[in-house]
Predict the 3D structure of the following.
Amino acid sequence: MTSPKNVVIAISGLHGVGKTSQARRLAEWLGLRHVSGGSIFRKLAKSKGMALTELSLIAEKSDEIDRLLDGMTVKEGKEGDVVVDSLLCTWFLKDIATIKIFLFAPEQVRIQRIASRDKKAYKEAYEETITRESSEINRFKKFYNITLEDVKNSCHLLLSTEGISEYEVFSILKYYVQTKLGKLRQ
């Protein structure tokens, strides 16, 4: 598909719902850039020689890391022609994004996906993910006074990724985006 001008698509959701996979696919399909908040956070942790949970715990003490990452998200959104995925991007891009999507799945499904993706035992993936998500949710409330419900409520589309393949999720998102962009052109 030819990319329409100045499109910003934001995809939020907890870890393991398929945000990055779907954002990457949509970006490729539309010929847009792709920016992943999770990848940025992982690179930052790696550059500091830390585990993700360690960096999350440090981020609880000061809003510096979150404000840096969230500021990068807004900057990318303002540049346009991008698909952004992160836990909070739909909230931060609520006045910028053309399309805002929230993906979700039950905890057990998400953890199993993460364990498989990262080649970790389920228990290790569970402990790491729950620690990170708890830290993030607490920081959202503390630093920004927002909840996960606020993030969901900022979205145009809420979609469960449970029980359907990545291809089926992409097909649904592709149809939705195509329809929404078509309506915006009229």
